[in-house]
Amino acid sequence: MTLPEWVPIRDDLRPYEPYGAPQLDVPVQLNVNENPYGPSKATADDIAESLRAAATELNRYPDREAWALREALADYLGHGLAADAVWAANGSNEVMQQILQAFGGPGRTAASFMPTYSMYPEYARNTHTRWIAGRRADDFAFDVDAALALIADEQPDVVLLASPNNPTGESLTLDAVRAVCDAAPGLVVLDEAYAEFRRPGTPTALSVLADYPRLVVTRTMSKAFAFAGGRLGYLAADPAIVDALRIVRLPYHLSTVTQTVALAALRHADEMLARVADLRATRDETAAWLRAQGHDVVDSDANFVLFGTFADRHAVWQGLLDKGVLIRETGPDGWLRVSVGTPEEMAAFRDALTAVLESPSIRQENA
Ligand SMILES: *Cc1c(COP(=O)(O)O)cnc(C)c1O
């Protein structure tokens, strides 16, 4: 996409493409880390009934503060959180954009550690926040010493850390979270979009939230919660941080429709999350299979697996797509990311990958 010259867009935005993975209509979609198991009939019925009731009031604006929803999210999170310590928006992407609007901006700095979620630099760009990209270690582990050195040098106003990290999959230790919080002069945002998938014994930063008033933990209903289409992300933080975000949010940003369907889904939280254990098991099986094929695989606490490396990863990605299996070409050079789907979808992925890697042209390129 190239915008015509006459479109008076900001100069710094002109070179960019709209962000997003290809949305292609293929049989096996393993590219955006969705939960492959949709809401049950009972949940879908409750969502529909709730919406029918709310429909008669769509002439009115929604609750601007979304109190009922924030209460339900606080209950879901536990850790003694109350509604005033929870904030919600249209996906955690919007939550994070609001964070950068309130805490970043001209003259301010945001930092993260690559490879990580590719939207972070976009939030910074959109809000005129200076962007500092630190590095993870060669094995993609979070390098605490390097992070503390970068924080000391750059004094970032916002540090963004994904745990489990996307696209690599590993979680931060609580010691690492504490070390960053102790060192950072501003906000520390722990993006826990995949928290529900973490392996047993892996901590959540919610457990140290009370110790660090400038710590923010973001979550989403898009991944484990099987509600990507509902567009609902949220965070937990000190109520004063939430108040700061209320200054930049658009009035009525969460529609009545969104609040209603999210509340209905949360009433069925157990059911929405019922397949998470299955997905974890399928993830571990997928990682083990990829390793057995001789690939490098990063241990994952999320619902995806990063594997590689390929001399021409695009050819592998395209070969899979030609066989009806869409995965994600993302992350460091040579690596590919596959989301965890149903056992049938993963069987299709394994068959397609085996066939693609046996094809003479790819074998040669990736030798
Ligand atoms: C998918 C994802 C999100 C969430 O996106 P939503 O806007 O809530 O759908 C946030 N952070 C990371 C690291 C993700 O991978």
Give the low-pLDDT segments. Answer: none
| Overall number of structural domains | 2
**Number of discrete helical segments:** 13
Average residue-wise pLDDT? 96
**Second rung of CATH, namely the architecture of the largest domain:** 3-Layer(aba) Sandwich
Order of helices and strands, N to C? EHHEHEHEHEHEEEHHHHEEHEEHH
Please compute the radius of gyration using only Cα atoms. Answer: 21 Å
CATH class of the largest domain: Alpha Beta
Model description:
The protein has 367 residues and is an alpha/beta fold. It has two domains: 41-269, Type I PLP-dependent aspartate aminotransferase-like (Major domain) (Aspartate Aminotransferase, domain 2), CATH 3.40.640.10; 275-365, Aspartate Aminotransferase, domain 1, CATH 3.90.1150. 39% of the residues lie in helices and 14% in strands. It is built from 13 helices and twelve strands. The protein has helices at 41-55, 67-77, 91-103, 120-126, 144-154, 174-183, 239-248, 256-267, 269-272, 276-292, 313-322, 343-358, 360-365, and strands at residues 28-29, 86-89, 109-114, 130-135, 158-162, 187-191, 215-220, 233-236, 296-297, 304-308, 325-326, 336-339. The strands form three sheets. A seven-stranded mixed sheet has the order 2-8-7-6-5-3-4, with helices on both faces. The chain has a three-stranded antiparallel sheet with strand order 9-10-12, covered by helices on one side. Strands 1-11 form a two-stranded parallel ribbon. Strand 3 (109-114), helix 4 and strand 4 (130-135) form a beta-alpha-beta unit. Helix 1 runs antiparallel to helix 8, helix 3 packs across helix 7 and helix 5 (144-154) packs parallel to helix 6. The radius of gyration is 21 Å and the shape is globular. The model has no long low-confidence stretch (mean pLDDT 96). The chain binds pyridoxal-5'-phosphate. Pyridoxal-5'-phosphate binds next to helix 3. Pyridoxal-5'-phosphate binds at residues 33, 91-93, 117, 162, 166, 191, 193, 220, 222-223, 228, 233.
